[in-house]
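FAQ

Q: What does a record look like?
A: Structure on top, sequence underneath. For example:
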C-alpha cells in the first residue's frame, strides 16, 4: 500500500483525465493521494477533488513563488480553510 503525499490533481493534463489518473494510481497500489494547493485561487478546486474522491485528501496553502500575490492571506484564513474535513494539512 502506497500514499502519494504530494500530487497536483488539478493541474492541466491531470484534471481532464482524473478518473484514469486515479485508476492508474490504484493499479500501482497507490491507495491514498494528497493533492496540494499552490495558490489561493486553487483552494476551492483542490477541496472539490478531495470531496469527489474518497481516497483523495487536500492541503491548502500557497507556494513560496506565489506568496506575493497572496500577501493578504492571513494565518486565520488558512486555519479556517483547513477546517474542511477533507483538508489534512496547511502548506505547499
Amino acid at each position: 500500500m502506497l500514499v502519494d503525499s504530494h500530487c497536483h490533481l488539478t493541474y492541466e493534463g491531470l484534471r481532464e483525465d482524473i478518473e484514469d489518473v486515479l485508476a492508474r494510481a490504484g493499479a500501482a497500489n497507490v491507495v491514498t493521494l494528497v493533492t496540494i494547493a499552490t495558490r489561493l485561487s486553487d483552494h476551492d478546486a483542490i477541496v472539490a477533488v478531495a470531496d469527489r474522491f474518497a481516497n483523495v485528501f487536500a492541503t491548502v496553502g500557497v507556494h513560496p513563488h506565489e506568496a506575493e500575490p497572496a500577501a493578504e492571506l492571513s494565518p486565520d484564513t488558512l486555519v479556517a480553510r483547513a477546517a474542511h474535513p477533507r483538508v489534512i494539512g496547511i502548506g505547499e
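Q: Is there anything notable about this one?
A: The chain has a mean pLDDT of 92.
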